[in-house]
């Protein structure tokens, strides 16, 4: 597409900050919005002197209007289990009021709309691997429901704006993604294991580590636009993942088995047939390589921790 004005909500977050980089590299003007609830301005620091990038500190749950734009990526939401459980009500608000506000703007400016949805919409899935036609298995009142149900409401809202108002919408269900700028202390498995391994602390495996996830490196994700499962279809048990982190970091950390959090999905793997056939999209970076690419970033986080502690 030619040069566009593109709005990105949640721009200071892990995924959206990488998305801003990709959109700018494609020649677009990018307006980022974030209320910095979990996003960090440091993720956008390298764009400070980029004339095609602007930023507003803004909560999308309040009414706002960034002026005309051609496309909006709605990426705003706390996303790690620790963050969305700490910010439960805010997570419900951004996935409902926030999504409706952004959809209204897309309608007003006749703009394209992409909503960053999640594999959590499938809950603790009974269909494996997960296909887009599966409706999921979500506990509507459990501790994860503030995120899962907000994201499911958002999907409903996006589908409704397409149905009732003809807004050109896209839904992407993103599976576990990692890489530089993932918050070092966000409680997620890759960040926990990398930081623990580099500190020499025990790796905290919840339950026996037989639950599975499929890990997608961030560069494989950044520029996908169409509605579909996006993720890496190679499935790892959490125990295997811990061993891979120990191998990459060369750490002598031990493994410490901890209780499993409530409603933690037992298995997760995307069926990406649709992405493959429709978009010719396929992830390229496998876990071993992606962890290696992430290593300098996590090392710098541990160094930053050490120097903060010595002040
Ligand atoms: N996990 C773990 N130890 C940790 C963090 C996570 O064993 O220190 C497990 C967790 O129980 C889950 C998986 O790793 O089964 C992925 O957890 P994460 O919080 O990264 O994201 P989720 O996929 O559950 O949203």
For the sheet with most strands, the description reads: 7 strands, parallel
Work out the oligomeric state of the chains in this entry.
single chain
Shape: globular
What low-confidence regions span 5 or more consecutive residues with pLDDT below 50?
A: none
**Number of β-strand runs:** 13
Radius of gyration (CA) equals 19 Å
Overall residue-averaged pLDDT value = 94
Name the helicity range.
25-40%
Q: If helices are DSSP runs of H or I spanning 4 or more residues, what is the number of helices?
A: 8
The share of residues in extended strands comes to 15-25%
Strand order of the largest sheet: 3-2-1-4-5-6-11
Backbone structural class: alpha/beta
Description of the molecule:
The chain has helices at residues 14-25, 81-86, 88-108, 145-165, 189-199, 238-249, 273-279, 287-310; strands spanning 5-9, 29-34, 53-57, 71-74, 112-118, 169-174, 177-178, 203-206, 212-214, 216-217, 228-230, 235-237, 255-258. It is α/β, with parallel strands linked by helices. The strands form four sheets. Strands 3-2-1-4-5-6-11 form a seven-stranded parallel sheet, with helices on both faces. A two-stranded parallel ribbon has the order 7-10. It has a two-stranded parallel sheet with strand order 8-13. Strand 1, helix 1 and strand 2 (29-34) form a beta-alpha-beta unit. The chain is globular and about 55 Å long. The mean pLDDT is 94. Bound molecules: uridine-5'-diphosphate. Uridine-5'-diphosphate (UDP) binds next to helix 5 and strand 8.
């Amino acid at each position: 597409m030619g040069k566009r004005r593109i709005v990105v909500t949640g721009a200071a977050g892990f995924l959206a900050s990488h998305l801003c980089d990709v959109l700018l590299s494609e020649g677009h003007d990018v307006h980022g919005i974030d209320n910095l609830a979990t996003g960090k301005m440091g993720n956008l620091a390298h764009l400070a002197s980029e004339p095609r990038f602007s930023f507003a500190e803004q909560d999308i749950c309040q009414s706002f209007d960034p002026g005309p734009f051609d496309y909006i990526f709605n990426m705003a939401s706390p996303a790690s289990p620790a963050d969305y459980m700490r910010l439960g009500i805010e997570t419900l608000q951004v996935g409902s009021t926030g999504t409706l506000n952004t959809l209204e703007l897309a309608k007003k400016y006749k703009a394209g709309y992409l909503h960053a949805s999640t594999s959590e919409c499938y809950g603790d899935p009974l269909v494996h691997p997960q296909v887009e036609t599966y409706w999921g298995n979500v506990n509507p009142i459990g501790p994860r429901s503030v995120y899962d149900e907000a994201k499911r409401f958002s999907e409903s809202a996006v589908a409704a704006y397409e149905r009732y108002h003809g807004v050109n919408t896209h839904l992407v269900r993103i599976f576990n993604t990692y890489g530089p700028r993932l918050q070092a202390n966000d409680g997620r498995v890759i960040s926990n294991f990398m930081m623990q391994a580099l500190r020499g602390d025990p790796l905290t495996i919840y339950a026996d580590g037989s639950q599975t996830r499929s890990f997608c490196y961030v560069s494989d994700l950044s520029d996908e636009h169409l509605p579909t499962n996006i993720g890496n279809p190679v499935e790892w048990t959490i125990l295997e993942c811990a061993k891979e982190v120990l191998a990459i970091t060369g750490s002598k950390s031990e493994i410490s088995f901890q209780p499993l959090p409530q409603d933690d999905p037992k298995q997760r793997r995307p069926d990406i047939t649709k992405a493959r056939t429709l978009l010719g999209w396929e992830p390229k970076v496998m876990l071993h390589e992606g962890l290696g690419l992430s290593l300098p970033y996590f090392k710098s986080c541990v160094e930053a921790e050490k120097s903060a502690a010595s002040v």
